[in-house]
Amino acid sequence: MLQTMQSRNGTMLNYNGNINIESNRSILEHLANEMIYEIFEFLDYYDVYNGFCSLNQRFQYLVLYSSVPITINTPAVSKSKFQDYHRNIVIPNKHRINIFSLSNPFAVDIVLSPPRIILDFVCLETLILDNISMENLKKIFYELMFLPNLHSLVLNLAEYVQNLNDIFSNIFCLPKLKYGKITYRIRIDQDLSGVYFSRFHCSPIETLIINGPFPNDSLNNLLYHFPKLHHLSINYVTASRVENSETHATSLLKHLKYVSLKLYLIAFNKFEQIVQTFFW
């Protein structure tokens, strides 16, 4: 006959030390709601929904009807499955989402295509748009201006960028933004010289990360719009085909503490001029 004994923590053990999990008294259902929410924070909400919602009424309520802010990372699933995910998870919880990551084109189309739908994401603080087209980006930029808590924006453009002004001029207009990270590509034969941004707006951004080529003759015009910068990273600064004879700093970056510039075809004397003009 199989003999059992009770351990100090209440787990029932058989005589050879194997754990009888069904008899473990420290089951998940006995945990306080606050602790369960802490567990949820370590999991993707997609897994929380699929793993806990069908357990019982209590967990269904904790998953679906809580006011606790949530992070949404769009899962790597088919379009039809994502449509179900959007209908069952995103739409009912859009007022709770504080971090939202959209990682494929059809996800962006499904979530952001209804007019002004982004305005319903009233708690949204961080928006990550990976592999987004310029067409979709232009559609939502204006509406992003009205999100009261949006302070972090990460963009990864899907196609080659024809005009940098289409990206940066819109970012300047986001009134609450503190963090901006932009990743883009240009064609090998594309000339970026003479990029100019209207000086109508100054951005509150404190951290700016540019993953893509940026012309050195437009640095002055760019930095004018970011007087509150603490952290600047550009990968990479490129030589302009037509060099300006002089560069004048029109913005004093009083708060700047970190600068990282990767250079491409920039002579040392030009690099020295950039440092003395903007960062000395």
What does this structure look like?
This protein is an alpha/beta fold. Among the domains are: 1-29, no CATH class; 151-280. It contains nine helices and ten strands. The protein has helices spanning 33-41, 45-52, 57-64, 79-90, 105-112, 134-144, 165-171, 219-224, 268-279; strands at 4-6, 12-14, 70-73, 97-102, 126-132, 152-160, 179-185, 207-215, 231-238, 258-264. The strands form two sheets. An eight-stranded parallel beta sheet has the order 3-4-5-6-7-8-9-10, covered by helices on one side. A two-stranded antiparallel sheet has the order 1-2. Helix 4 packs parallel to helix 5 (105-112) and helix 6 (134-144) packs parallel to helix 7 (165-171).
Overall structural class, as computed from helix and strand content, comes to alpha/beta
Radius of gyration: 25 Å
Mean pLDDT: 82
What's the tally of helices?
A: 9
Low-confidence stretches: 1-15, 17-25
Count the beta strands. 10
State the major sheet: 8 strands, parallel
Distance between the termini: 83 Å
Strand content: 15-25%
Give the H and E element order.
Answer: EEHHHEHEHEHEHEEHEEH
* Multimer state: single chain
Shape: elongated
Instruction: Please bin the fraction of helical residues.
Output: 25-40%
What topology, given as strand order, has the largest sheet?
Answer: 3-4-5-6-7-8-9-10
InterPro entries: LRR_dom_sf (IPR032675)
Organism: Rotaria sordida
Protein name: F-box domain-containing protein
